[in-house]
Amino acid sequence: MNYLYYAMELAVENVQQGGSPFGAVLVLEGEVISTGVNLHHRCYDVTTHAEIEAVRKAQHKLQTDDLSACTMYASGMPCPMCLAAMYFVGIRNVYYAQTLEEAETVGLGTSKQIYSDLAKESAQWHIHMVHVPTSHPEDPMKLFQQMKGE
Ligand SMILES: [Zn+2]
């Protein structure tokens, strides 16, 4: 099976249903474990990108946080949010069919801007992010460490 072609097909169907032009197919040992398309046109949830949807379904199906044995096939180059999600579940191989530049030409250039920001010092990002050290009687990081028994 041509998984990238399948991802493109999902993207086309999603556009035909009023959504964004993105589809994703997650493969484990030669089998499609899950698929996803961008759904935020239906549910106003910006995290419902194709790749995250595919990851979410696979995690639910396999009941695991470890998808390191899976390969992602995405119709478009994954955005930084989806990239981060794939980092969190250990996915190491991603194939994509369309570029950030192709997305930008149809008005979907945010991913390219975010990647550009991430290549700079945080002070130059479009989001103003400030570290403000704040103490609390119960340090959540230390509490987490204790709860884990370490
Ligand atoms: Zn994304």
Describe this structure in words.
- β1 and β2 form a beta hairpin.
- This protein has a four-stranded mixed beta sheet, with helices on both faces.
- Helices cover 43% and strands 17% of the residues.
- The termini are far apart.
- α3 (50-62) runs parallel beside α4.
- By secondary structure, it is an alpha+beta fold.
- The protein has a single domain (3-129), classed as Cytidine Deaminase, domain 2 (3-Layer(aba) Sandwich).
Q: Count the strands?
A: 4
Percent range of helical residues? 40-55%
Number of helices: 7
Largest sheet: 4 strands, mixed
CATH architecture: 3-Layer(aba) Sandwich
Domain module count: 1
- Which fold name fills CATH's third level, the topology? Cytidine Deaminase, domain 2
CATH level-1 class? Alpha Beta
How far is the N terminus from the C terminus? 46 Å
Instruction: Give me the CATH superfamily.
Output: Cytidine Deaminase, domain 2
Order of helices and strands: HEEHHEHEHHH
GO molecular function: guanosine deaminase activity; zinc ion binding
Organism: Pontibacillus litoralis JSM 072002
InterPro entries: APOBEC/CMP_deaminase_Zn-bd, CMP_dCMP_dom, Cytidine_deaminase-like
Protein name: Guanine deaminase
Question: In summary, what is this structure?
Answer:
This protein has 150 residues and is α+β, with helices and mostly antiparallel strands. The chain is built from 7 helices and 4 strands.
List keywords for this structure.
150 residues, alpha+beta, Cytidine Deaminase, domain 2, 7 helices, 4 strands
Strand and helix layout:
Elements: H1 3-16, E1 23-28, E2 31-37, H2 40-43, H3 50-62, E3 70-76, H4 80-89, E4 93-98, H5 100-105, H6 110-118, H7 140-147
Parallel strand pairs: 3-4
Antiparallel strand pairs: 1-2, 1-3
Helix pairs in contact: 3-4
